[in-house]
């Protein structure tokens, strides 16, 4: 699997401290997007991030820790409060590795290695498929 994600060092943001809140995360995210973000999507995103980050941890992502064992978070990307979860300086590698290894445990998940997604096919607000290119052959693919 090829992905530039493995080069990402920064981390992924999720509320993890008592002095932080979904409202602060929402504001930092929308302000960081110059108020051009779809705010309902950002609201959904910030409320689900802690659960998803914990899920990655349960699957094996080695988030950096403080001496007390809690997740170590830092400021990153214009956030005013420390909420960026990271795994040393190889966050992208560890996240992608965790997702890849987890996907191997589920035979019903069909991966399309060496394919590049060009578009999502959405009908009535639901993702119904995608348009992809087979990178090895340079042809369109129909991964249903």
From TrEMBL:
<dbReference type="InterPro" id="IPR036188">
    <property type="entry name" value="FAD/NAD-bd_sf"/>
</dbReference>
<keyword id="KW-0285">Flavoprotein</keyword>
<dbReference type="GO" id="GO:0006113">
    <property type="term" value="P:fermentation"/>
</dbReference>
<dbReference type="GO" id="GO:0009055">
    <property type="term" value="F:electron transfer activity"/>
</dbReference>
<dbReference type="InterPro" id="IPR030664">
    <property type="entry name" value="SdhA/FrdA/AprA"/>
</dbReference>
<keyword id="KW-0560">Oxidoreductase</keyword>
<dbReference type="InterPro" id="IPR003953">
    <property type="entry name" value="FAD-dep_OxRdtase_2_FAD-bd"/>
</dbReference>
<protein>
    <recommendedName>
        <fullName>FAD-dependent oxidoreductase 2 FAD-binding domain-containing protein</fullName>
    </recommendedName>
</protein>
<feature type="domain" description="FAD-dependent oxidoreductase 2 FAD-binding">
    <location>
        <begin position="2"/>
        <end position="138"/>
    </location>
</feature>
<dbReference type="GO" id="GO:0008177">
    <property type="term" value="F:succinate dehydrogenase (quinone) activity"/>
</dbReference>
<dbReference type="Pfam" id="PF00890">
    <property type="entry name" value="FAD_binding_2"/>
</dbReference>
<dbReference type="GO" id="GO:0050660">
    <property type="term" value="F:flavin adenine dinucleotide binding"/>
</dbReference>
<dbReference type="GO" id="GO:0009061">
    <property type="term" value="P:anaerobic respiration"/>
</dbReference>
<dbReference type="GO" id="GO:0005886">
    <property type="term" value="C:plasma membrane"/>
</dbReference>
<dbReference type="InterPro" id="IPR003952">
    <property type="entry name" value="FRD_SDH_FAD_BS"/>
</dbReference>
């Amino acid at each position: 699997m090829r992905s530039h994600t493995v080069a990402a060092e920064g981390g992924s943001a999720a509320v993890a401290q008592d002095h932080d809140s979904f409202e602060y995360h929402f504001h930092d995210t929308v302000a960081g997007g110059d108020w051009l973000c779809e705010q309902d999507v950002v609201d959904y995103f910030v409320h689900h991030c802690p659960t998803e980050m914990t899920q990655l941890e349960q699957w094996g992502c080695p988030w950096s820790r403080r001496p007390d064992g809690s997740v170590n978070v830092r400021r990153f990307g214009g956030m005013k409060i420390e909420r960026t979860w990271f795994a040393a300086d190889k966050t992208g590698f560890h996240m992608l590795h965790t997702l890849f290894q987890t996907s191997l445990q589920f035979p019903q998940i069909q991966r399309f290695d060496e394919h590049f997604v060009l578009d999502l096919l959405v009908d009535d607000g639901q993702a119904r498929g995608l348009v992809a290119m087979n990178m090895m052959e340079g042809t369109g693919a129909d991964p249903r």
